[in-house]
Amino acid sequence: LREGQCDGGQGRYNARGFDLNRNFPDYFKQNNKRGQPETDAVKEWTSKIQFVLSGGLHGGALVASYPFDNTPNSMFQSFSSAPSLTPDEDVFRHLALTYSQNHPTMHKGRACKSGSPAFTDGVTNGAAWYPLTGGMQDFNYVWYGCMEITLELSCCKYPPASALPKYWEDNRLPLVKFLAEAHRGVHGFVLDENNNPIEKASLKIKSRDVGFQTTKYGEFWRILLPGVYKLEVYADGYTPKDVDFMVIEEHPTLLNVTLYPAKVGGRNRDDKTLYQKPWHPPWLVSIHKPPQLAPGIEHNAEGAGERE
Question: Which residue numbers are catalytic?
């Protein structure tokens, strides 16, 4: 590997030879690759902090790519690239476009070289480019509700150091605009009847079947485009609540929710779980419980391309 070399895969593997962006639990297919300390550290980190928005910075292409990276057909030996859309497709596409349209060249969607794909408006659904198993952006979204996209910032995989100031100038405004999107949508607190915060209350936007949770301070955030929504709130030992709210363009919506102890047989019952999160399959409750495969099914293909 030398400075200025524009192709290759060096740098994506750890010292044990594992590709870290294929090492996370996966929604669509059980990932049997042995977990690595680096990915375990990221999983621990994201389990402790309610991240709202995230961008993974890569090289080797010029495009903003968004979930899903994998597809329901990934369990089969042979499958092709096709869009695999999340319940938050509108938000993810908006986030990707926010980056590409503020970049001087990404939004033009030009192919990096002959034989490489071109991307309309400089954005793509990950699986439409090529599907992969074990990527970080799908994991962070499905397990923790973090709106993560992948930002491919350079056609040259390993650009010379002299080019770095130009890359910074090209990406400074897109990064600022992208990060500002964390303030779009709804935010607030989930509290009990005495105004104490409820930690790890489970929330979901109706018809968007990927949930998220409150922090230890009862805080929550969700990026949404303007519209009318219903927030579904659950917490162990409390009566669930649905709250209608509106999101506008000009500023985020502040929404505080009060939950009251559930009553069973006329008595308060807050010492055990009364309500489960119905939108989560069992394997999504824990990072240690990925989905199960049918016996005998194995898949090793990860597609072709330059994406990390």
Answer: 152
Between CA 131 and CA 212 the distance in angstroms is 25
For residues 26 and 142, the answer to whether their CB atoms sit within 8 Å is no
- Asked if 109 and 121 touch (Cβ cutoff 8 Å), the reply is yes
In order of their start, the domains of the chain are 20-182 (3.40.630.10), 185-284 (2.60.40.1120)
Q: What residues are paired with 243 via a beta bridge?
A: 231
Q: Give strand pairing partners of 187.
A: 221, 254
Three-state secondary structure along 286-298? CCCCCCCCCCCCC
Half-sphere exposure of 219 (CA within 13 A, CB side): 8
Beta bridge partners of 152: 58, 63
- Give the predicted TM-score (pTM) of the model: 0.86
Among the listed residues 179, 181, 189, 182, the one whose alpha carbon sits nearest the alpha carbon of residue 254: 189
What is the bridge-based pairing of β-strands 202-205 and 227-234?
antiparallel
The predicted-structure confidence for 242-254, as pLDDT tens digits, reads as follows 999 999 998 999 9
Tokens representing 94 are 């908006």
